[in-house]
Write a structure and sequence with these properties.
This protein is α/β, with parallel strands linked by helices. Helices cover about 40% and strands about 25% of the residues. The chain is built from 15 helices and 17 strands. A hairpin with an 8-residue loop joins β16 and β17.
């Protein structure tokens, strides 16, 4: 799937690039002013954009002054941002749409929801703020601004590492390159000035937001404390607030999909389950009893639900079908028609579990399943579950059947763990551990 890029013209004559992908209920992703590039965003943040396009008719755009939009227009007032948004909505044609916004785009989403309540069914606001004074004196902001008038490469690399942390240097380097592709230095400085974002304050508009709203905040956000997200959620009637540990937004697509799926306006069709032989993935939280005792039941369940949503997004992104009704704690179950995709999904799920502090046991087997309503049953499902129980936390184990299907196409190597006796299974099953390729 590739995005379709088009242009809309604003009421003041600015050409705005927007992109669409997928089918279904419209979901509009709002860009942070200046830090936008519709094509590069699709590639850099594939773990967010592409799973969402599997579920929704996704629409996103470049603000003026950045990306593929008119770079000569550098008015970043809220009025200008609303003109950009209104032009895209008019051209793309969504009505009654859901909207998600990240970071500095959150005040734009709040303004739109307050001024046009008839157009927005649901809102997901991530790492947002109410007024710029919430963050302008934070040490990370002060440090970033001190560098903004100097070397452009040094500034973007420092900004990326402030955002994503030195522990994830690979993604931070990708994001630094993304910033350089999005915007020129003078446009970014114009965006963060007293005529632009610095002047924004949507405090008075919060009570006017009537959309079904979720406010998500990263606990380790280096620019905004959790209290900024709390103030945002507290000001919006009936808004739900959720804290996550997800600096790279691995969980975001799953969180958005799960929340919007609760809305009456966005009824998701049940997945179509394959018949016959499939590859089965079973994942379970490692030592969930000890984690529950350490975190407390409520905190553990919250983190488990967040991870469950993220895993379902990963599964869909890799061509699989998550089975409804199977929740973490009892296990998440999915089926695939490709062994290569199933292994890729399992490895990504393992990384997501480790990042969330809830490491997973992961097992794969291939065989015939019995399809009933929106569930699958049979001996092959039981074997996948038993294999997952043998794995070390974060490790992916596969049966000999899966290894035979994927040995030349998965881009990994397999380490022989020998024949294993599985509870409830008459014959021993040879099991292999998935390892990174040595080449």
């Amino acid at each position: 799937m590739e995005p379709r890029i088009q242009y809309a013209r604003t009421s003041d004559g600015v050409d705005i690039a927007f992109a669409t992908a997928g089918e279904g209920q419209p979901l509009l992703l709002l860009p942070s002013p200046a830090l936008t590039h519709v094509q590069a965003a699709w590639e850099t943040f594939a773990h967010v954009f592409q799973p969402l396009a599997e579920c929704f008719h996704l629409v996103w755009y470049d603000s003026r002054g950045s990306g593929l939009s008119d770079r000569e227009a550098m008015d970043f007032s809220m009025e200008a941002m609303m003109r950009d948004l209104e032009a895209v909505v008019e051209s793309a044609g969504p009505t009654g749409f859901a909207m998600s916004a990240l970071g500095d785009a959150v005040p734009i989403a709040v303004t739109c929801a307050a001024l046009h309540p008839e157009k927005i069914s649901s809102l997901v606001l991530v790492d947002g703020w109410v007024k710029f004074s919430d963050l302008h004196q934070k040490p990370a902001i002060v440090a970033a601004r001190a560098l903004s008038s100097g070397d452009w490469a040094l500034y973007t690399e420092t900004l990326a590492r402030l955002l994503f942390g030195f522990e994830n240097q690979k993604f931070a380097a990708q994001f630094a390159a993304y910033i350089q592709e999005c915007v020129e230095p003078e446009a970014l400085r114009a965006a963060f000035s007293s005529q632009g974002i610095d002047a924004w304050d949507v405090s008075a508009l919060l009570p006017q937001v009537s959309a079904h709203t979720l406010v998500v905040h990263n606990r380790n956000n280096r620019f905004l404390p959790v209290q900024a997200g709390q103030r945002l959620a507290a000001g919006i009637p009936n808004a739900r607030f959720q804290v996550v540990d997800d600096m790279n937004y691995v969980q975001l697509a799953g969180i958005i999909t799960a929340f919007l799926g609760e809305s009456d306006q966005i009824a998701q069709p049940p997945p179509t389950l394959p018949h016959g032989t499939v590859v089965i993935l079973f994942a379970d939280i490692a030592d969930s009893t000890a984690l529950t005792e350490r975190l407390g039941d409520a905190a553990f369940r919250t983190k488990a639900r967040e991870l469950d949503a993220a895993l379902r997004g990963i599964i869909r992104e890799n061509g699989g079908t998550p089975i409804e009704g199977k929740l973490l704690g009892d296990g998440v179950l999915a089926v695939f028609t490709s062994a290569r995709q199933a292994i890729g999904a399992a490895l990504t799920c393992g990384a997501a579990g480790s990042h969330a502090g809830l490491p997973l046991h992961l097992g794969l087997h291939a065989g015939d399943v019995i399809r009933e309503d929106n569930n699958v049953y049979g001996g092959a499902v039981n074997i996948a579950s038993r294999i997952s129980g043998l794995s070390a936390p974060g490790e992916v184990l596969v049966s000999d059947t899966v290894r035979s299907l994927a040995r030349t196409s998965a881009g990994v190597r397999f380490e022989d763990c020998g024949e294993q006796s599985l509870k409830g299974v008459g014959e021993n099953v040879r099991v292999w551990a998935v390892r990174e390729s040595e080449t």
